[in-house]
Amino acid sequence: MTNMILKMIDLSLMAEHLPVHKAELDKLASYICTIQNPEIKKAATEQYMIMQNHVKVMIALMDPVRNESVSIEDLHKWDPVPFNCQQKYTSMSQENILKELATTAESMANKNFNSGLRMKAENVRNIHIHMSLQQSTMLNRYNALMDKFIKDTAPVSSRKEQEETMETFRKMFHL
After folding, report:
1. What is the pLDDT of residues 74-132, one digit of tens each?
2. Residue closest to 10 by CA, chosen among 50, 58, 47, 69
3. Each residue of 38-58: pLDDT tens digit?
4. Distance between CA atoms of 111 and 75, rounded to whole angstroms?
């Protein structure tokens, strides 16, 4: 096996991204210790394990001796994580924690996808795009939990408004 030296952009994007993971993992751990609802707690714990695994994969990608052997399959090797929940407390409501978890998943999906598009090494790029897909899956889970536990405040359009909007674009595109 040869040593693969990464392009500086790949190394820089991961070096910039890892401290974000550290902060997000610390925040997730704090939330997990205060979440009462078992469904939300399970989803947050899974997101923690996914992100912890992302850290391990990115550090492995930085290793010039083994980075060529790191693959998408490595993203599915999660380890159970114990949480030290001594004296953890937040004044945030369960609903706000759930919204924050969804925002975190969305943000991480965006960061991973945008970074992946800029990366030069094919395996590094593909792994980051798959990291984005994992976070997108977590976002879908959080959205489903929000639909279940939180009243939706987004206004619903009427059939008339929807049809008028559609007609505007049909005319614009001559369809």
Report:
1. 999 988 888 888 766 677 888 999 999 999 999 999 999 999 999 999 999 999 999 99
2. 58
3. 999 999 999 999 999 999 999
4. 16
What is the C-alpha to C-alpha distance for residues 40 and 53, in angstroms, rounded to an integer? 20
Nearest Cα to Cα of residue 98 among 43, 46, 166 = 43
pTM of the model: 0.86
- SS3 readout for the chain: CCCCCCCHHHHHHHHHHHHHHHHHHHHHHHHHHHCCCHHHHHHHHHHHHHHHHHHHHHHHHHCCCCHHHCCHHHHHCCCCCCCCCCCCCCCCCHHHHHHHHHHHHHHHHHHHHHHHHHCCCHHHHHHHHHHHHHHHHHHHHHHHHHHHHCCCCCCCCCHHHHHHHHHHHHHHCCC
For residues 129, 65, 79, 45, the Cα torsion angle rounded to the nearest 10 degrees is -40
- Around Cβ 54, how many Cβ atoms within 10 Å? 25
8 A C-beta contact, residue 38 and residue 85 = no
Q: Any idea which residue has 């469904």 for tokens?
A: 39
Structure tokens at 123: 């395996």
